[in-house]
Amino acid sequence: MNDKIAKPENGSYGTIDGVEITEEVIARLVKNAEEGFPGAKFRAPGRPARTDEPTRAITVRLSESELAAVMARAEREHRSRSEAIRIALAEWANEAA
C-alpha cells in the first residue's frame, strides 16, 4: 500500500472543522457528490455579470503617470480602477458620437 495514503486511527482519519472524519462520513460525502449534491445551490463560476451583454477583458498599457492619475481620481470618487476606466471610456465614446 502507498505510504502517503491516510490510515485511520481507531476508526477516525482526524477532524475537519470539529467533524470527526470516519468511513461513514466519507461514504456520505461520496454519495452526495455522486448524486450531484442534492439540494445544494451553487453560484455560477466567475465574477458576477455587470451587464446583460457579453464582456471581454482587454489589456491597455498606461504610463506610470497615467495610471497614477487614474488611481488618484478613482480613489477620490471611491471607485475601483476598472470602474473609473469604464466611466472615462463611456464619456469619451459618447462625446465622439
Task: Report on this structure.
With 97 residues, the protein is mainly α. Helices cover 42% and strands 9% of the residues. It contains three helices and two strands. The protein has helices at residues 23-34, 64-76, 81-96; strands at 12-16, 19-22. Strands 1-2 form a two-stranded antiparallel sheet. Helix 2 (64-76) crosses helix 3. The chain is elongated. The mean pLDDT is 89.
Q: Unreliable segments (pLDDT under 50, ≥5 consecutive)?
A: none
First-to-last CA distance? 71 Å
Using only C-alpha atoms, the radius of gyration works out to: 25 Å
**Major sheet details:** 2 strands, antiparallel
Secondary structure tally: strands: 2
Overall average residue pLDDT: 89
**DSSP strand content:** 5-15%
Strand order of the largest sheet: 1-2
Keywords for this structure?
two-stranded antiparallel ribbon; single chain; mainly alpha; elongated; 2 strands; 97 residues
Summarize this, please?
Helix content is 42%, strand content 9%. The protein has 97 residues and is mainly alpha-helical.
Would you spell out the secondary-structure blueprint of this structure?
Blueprint: E1 12-16, E2 19-22, H1 23-34, H2 64-76, H3 81-96
Antiparallel strand pairs: 1-2
Helix pairs in contact: 2-3
